[in-house]
Design goal:
The longest helix is centred in the middle third of the chain and has 62 residues. The protein has one domain. The termini are far apart. By secondary structure, the protein is mainly alpha-helical.
């Protein structure tokens, strides 16, 4: 619709601007998707480490209780 009242040069300029905008969107999407994935991986490792530490602490407590019984 907008293109009907535009000159050929204006159309070309708009198409170039849209191409640049598309490329910027692609770069930003890639950057922020990678950053988001890295954050989830890091958070996941931290969460797993906390769970494992909790299990180890619980096992140590149970071992100590058994040692104290004997």
């Amino acid at each position: 619709m907008l293109l009907t009242g535009m000159t050929q040069a204006e159309r070309k300029e708009v198409q170039q601007a849209l191409g640049q905008l598309s490329e910027l969107h692609r770069k930003l999407s890639t950057t922020y998707t990678l950053a988001d994935n890295l954050e989830h991986i890091t958070d996941g490792r931290d969460a797993a480490a906390k769970l494992i530490k909790g299990e180890i602490d619980l096992l140590q407590l149970e071992i100590q209780i058994l040692i104290n019984k004997f």
